[in-house]
Amino acid sequence: MASPGNPLQRHGGSRPRPAKETAGLPYEHESNGVLLLDSTGEPILLSRDERRRIVEASVDHANGRISIMCGVSAPSTAETIENAKHAKDSGVDLALMVQPPYVKPTQAAVYKYFKDVADQIDLPIVIYNNPDRCAVNIEPETVARLAQHPNIVAIKEAGPSAYAEMRVIELTKGEFNVLCCDCPFFAHIPVVMASGGKGTSNVTGSICLKEFAEMSKPWENYDDVLRTRRIL
Question: How far is CA 227 from the centre of its chain?
Answer without folding.
Answer: 24
